[in-house]
Amino acid sequence: MDELMDLEWVPHEKKDLKPSKPNLLQLRVISLEYVARNVHYFFEQVQALPSSQLIDLFKKMCQLKLVDNLQRLMSNLSLLERLIKHPCNWITMHQALNLVLTKEKDFDYFLAEQKKAACEMLKKQFTKENICNLNELMQFVHESIILGSFLTEHGRYKSAYIVFECVEISDLNGNIEPAMLSMAFDIALRTSHVLTVDCKYNEANKAILNTSLLLSYMHNSGLHPNCALFYTTCSMYMFSLSQYDKAYNLAVQAVQEISCDLSPKIIVDTLRQACKVCIIKRIFSQAHIYINEALKLAKYWFGEDHPKYADCLADYGFYLISVDSVTASVKFYVMALQIRQSLFGDRNLVTSMTHEDLAYAIYVRDYSIGNFESARGHAEQALKTMVELLPEDHLMLSSVKRVQALILEEIALDSDNKVMEARLLGCAEKLHLDALKLAKQTFGEGNVQTAKHYGNLGRLYQSMKRFKEAEVNHVNAIEIKEKLLGKEHYEVALSIGHLASLYNYDMKRYDLAEPLYLRSIDIGRKLFGVWYSGLEYDYRGLAHLYEKTNQHQQSSTYHMALHDWMEERRNKVFKQPTKLDIEMDRDTNIKTVLSNIKKNASYGSGSSGSNT
C-alpha cells in the first residue's frame, strides 16, 4: 500500500472529446442496415429505390438473415422481377430465395401462382377482336420467361413449368401473332428444357414437338433463329432416354450453331451437353475440349461463385470419373457442392444431385480401402432431401436410391455383426428394387439406367448368396447394355466382370468365367490403357480361377500382371488436374474462341472412343 502511495500522479494527455464524424461510406452502411431491419416502416420508399440500391439492400438482408423482411419484399412480384431482370443480381436473389424457402417451403409456388393469376387477368384483355397493346403483352411474356428461367436455375422445376405454361402464347388468343413467334419459340423451348430436367419425358416429348412446329412457322415467316438451345435441349432429351447416337448428333449440331450473339448461358450449356454425350460415346479427347472451354467461358463471363460455373465443375467431375481419374473427380464435385450450397442451401434438388454425384465418386475412390462413411453421409443427405421435395414415384429417386444401396451393401459386407449385415443388406435390396421399379415405370426395359439396376441387384444377390437370382440379373444387364451401347463399351465390361466374378467365386463355373474375364480385360485396356482401375479385379479373378483349375503357370502370369498393374498405377503420372488452367484474358476474342471450338468439333465428329 505504501508503494502505491509513492506513485507519482501523471495527468493524461489532453484529448479531443468530440466524436469523430462518420464518413459517407459509414453512414451508408449504417442506414442500409437500419432500413434492412425495418423494411416494414419503409416499404413504399424501398419499392421506389433504383435496382442498384435495392440489390444492396437484399445483400444486407441476406447477410443478416432477415428472412421475414426478405419474404415481405419478394412477395411483391413486380419488385422481384425488376431485380432478376439483371443477370448480375441472380446470385444475391438465389441466396434470398433460399433463405425464404427455409421458412416458407412452398414460396416458389406462391410466386408462380401469382404470375399465373396475373396472366389470367391479362388473357381477358387480349382477344382476337381486341389486341390493343401488343407491347404490354410482350413485356409480360418477357418477364415471365426471366422468372421461369430463374426458378429453373434454382431447381424449382415445377414452379418454373407453371410460369412457362401460363404464358404459352398460342393460348392467349387462339393463334400466334407474327411479332410474337420468337417469344413463342423461346417459351416452348424453355418448357421442353424444364420438363426434361424434371424427368417428365412424355410431357417433354410433346413440348419438343410443339417447339419444332413453331420453328417451322418461323422459317415459313422468313425468320431464322439460332437453334443451339433447341438442338441442345433435344440432345438432353435423347440422352435421358439412352438414345446416345441421336443425342450425340444433336449435340454436334448445337455446337455448330454457337455464335457471339448467343446468350453466354446457352453457349456454356451447349458445350456442357456436348461433353456429356462425348463421354458416353467414349470420345474423351472431344469431351475434354468441350468441358475445358465451358469452364473457361463460365469463369470469364460469370465468375467462380456462379451456378453456371458450378454446373461446369460438376460436369468436369463426371468427365474425370469417366476417364478413371477418380481422386480428381472428387475434388471437382466438392467445389461444385460448395458453390451450390452457398447459393441454394442443402434443401434443394440441384444441391442434392451434387451430394449424390459426390457420394458415388467417394464410393468409387474409397472402394479398395473399405471406408464408406463419407460417401454414406452425402448419399443420405441427397436421399433425405429428394424424398422431402419429390413425389414418391419421381425418377430422380431411382438414381439416389441406387447409390445409397451400393454403399450400404459394402458397409454390410465389412460388418462383423451378422444381424447388422442382414439388416443392411435387406435395406439395400429394398432400395435397389425401388430404383428398378421407378426406372422400368419410366423407360421400360430398354434403357441403360434399367440395366444398371439389374446389374446392381445381381451384385447384391451374390453378396446375399442368392446366386441364381444374381445370374439372371447380370445377364439381363449385359443384354440391355450391349443392345444400347455396343459390345465394346465400358459399361458392358463392368457387367461382364461382375458375372465372371459370380461364376468364379460362388458358382465354380470356371469354364464360363474365363472368357468373360478375358473379354472384360480387353475392353478395359482398349478404352483406358494398362493402368485402368477395373483391371485389378479381373486380374485377381483370373489368378484365382487358374489356381482352382491347377493351371499354375497361367495363375502365375496373372499374379505378375497384377503386380505390374500395381506398379503402373503407382508410377504412372496420370494427368489429374489439381489446379485448373482456365484463365482467359479480358482482351480475349470470344469470336476466335468459339470458332476454334467449332473447328475441333468438326474434326472430332467422326472419332471413335479413345482415352486422353
Automatic annotation (TrEMBL):
Pfam families: TPR_10. InterPro entries: APPBP2 (IPR042476), TPR-like_helical_dom_sf (IPR011990), TPR_rpt (IPR019734). One of its GO terms (molecular function) is ubiquitin-like ligase-substrate adaptor activity. One of its GO terms (cellular component) is Cul2-RING ubiquitin ligase complex. One of its GO terms (biological process) is proteasome-mediated ubiquitin-dependent protein catabolic process. SUPFAM superfamilies: TPR-like. It comes from the Eukaryota. This is Amyloid protein-binding protein 2. It comes from Clytia hemisphaerica.
